[in-house]
Amino acid sequence: MIDHPEITQRLIAKLNGALPLPARLPPEAQDLLRRQTSSPTISDRVAITSISYLGDEGGIVCKLDLGPHVENAAFTSITHLRFDPRSPLAREIAAYQTHRVKRIQRQR
């Protein structure tokens, strides 16, 4: 098992209560979304508008609002996003991200 079910469910509840939640895309994710949406401009600042849990295989997945100029919906794992360290949920999100990445690496 990759995620701790109770901890993950508590985090999801807190994330849902904080929506829309600001996040930042790393350059690699911006480039990928630019290619997938055919939009010349994808900002590094996005808003998370919805949270889903895809089980141990997919983890926490976020629906992103990329702005009015992008028609397609974009989804990404929360592990691919960056958050303001001053955010009230930043520590819990970082702990989830670190734990998940380490557990996935160990499974390989």
Unreliable segments (pLDDT under 50, ≥5 consecutive)? none
Helix content: 40-55%
Order of SSEs = HEHEHEEH
C-alpha Rg, in Å?
14 Å
Count of alpha/pi helices: 4
Structural class: alpha+beta
Largest sheet: 4 strands, antiparallel
Total number of distinct structural domains: 1
Determine the N-to-C terminus distance: 13 Å
**Sequence of strands across the biggest β-sheet:** 1-2-3-4
- Percentage beta strand: 15-25%
Looking at the structure, what is the overall shape? globular
What is the overall pLDDT average? Answer: 93
The count of strands amounts to 4
Keywords for this entry:
108 residues, alpha+beta, four-stranded antiparallel sheet
Give the structure's gist in a few sentences.
The protein has helices at residues 5-17, 27-37, 55-58, 90-107; strands at residues 21-24, 45-53, 60-65, 74-77. It has 108 residues and is of the alpha+beta class.
Descriptive overview:
It is a single chain. With 108 residues, the protein is α+β, with helices and mostly antiparallel strands. It has one domain (5-102). 43% of the residues lie in helices and 21% in strands. The chain has helices spanning 5-17, 27-37, 55-58, 90-107, and strands at 21-24, 45-53, 60-65, 74-77. The protein has a 4-stranded antiparallel β-sheet. A hairpin with an 8-residue loop joins β3 and β4 (74-77). It starts with a helix and ends with a helix.
